[in-house]
Amino acid sequence: MRTIGDGKGRMLFTTLGLALMLTVLGPVAGGAQETVADGRRVSLEYTVTFEDKTVFDSNVGKEPLVYIHGSEKRVPFFSKHLTGLEAAETKQFVMPPEDVYGPDDPERIIEVPKDSIPEDRRQVGQKLEGKSPEGRPLYAEVLEIKAETVVIDTNHPLAGETLFFDVKILKVETVSEQQ
């Protein structure tokens, strides 16, 4: 294609040529906003509240949560809600108990021998923490002290809770294989 004219034609040709190159070659690296997708590093801020609007957790004004999307190690509960978002986008969503820590299961209230609970923890309301044989965290709360046993609730402390998320994507980056 030739350019003809007083320079305005050249400008038109250059603009059309650039548009054609971007269409054929794609955007220049770093030129387009990246979206949240598997394998990308995502930085975000969040606030999690209960149904009554009480804040359970928030990192707003603190260090952002940074994770590799799709790795499911840091944020398995809500990463599916973030796919496709770009930096500066926000999203609110609700996670029912079944998608987070499960329902409150009455069968997880058990009696254990009194001597299996440290003496200083044998008080109603005491929180107990431990690890499963696989290394997962375990939680329990003392509900009742009996003569020879202790009744504990081994449900996760958030079992049965519906959680409300307010998330803002701060940054989305492609992760090189060297990182």
Give descriptors for this structure.
single chain, 179 residues, mainly beta, 5-stranded antiparallel β-sheet, 4-stranded antiparallel β-sheet, 10% helix, disordered N terminus
Give a topology summary.
Blueprint: H1 8-25, E1 40-49, E2 55-58, E3 65-68, E4 90-95, E5 109-113, E6 127-131, E7 137-145, E8 149-153, E9 163-174
Antiparallel strand pairs: 1-2, 1-3, 1-9, 4-9, 5-8, 6-7, 7-8
Model regions low in confidence, pLDDT < 50 over at least 5 residues:
1-31
The largest sheet, given as strand count, sense and whether it forms a barrel, is: 5 strands, antiparallel
Mean pLDDT: 81
What best-fitting shape do the alpha-carbon axes yield? elongated
Q: Find the structural class using helix and strand composition.
A: mainly beta
Radius of gyration: 26 Å
Strand tally is 9
Helix and strand run: HEEEEEEEEE
Number of distinct helices: 1
Helical fraction: 10-25%
C-alpha end-to-end distance: 44 Å
Short description:
The protein is mainly beta.
How would you describe what is shown here?
This protein has one helix and nine strands; from the N terminus they run H-E-E-E-E-E-E-E-E-E. With 179 residues, it is mainly β. Strands 1, 2, 3, 4 and 9 form a five-stranded antiparallel sheet that branches. It has a four-stranded antiparallel sheet with strand order 5-8-7-6, with no helix packed on it. Strand 1 (40-49) and strand 2 form a beta hairpin. The longest helix has 18 residues, at 8-25. It is elongated. Residues 1-31 have low confidence and may be disordered.
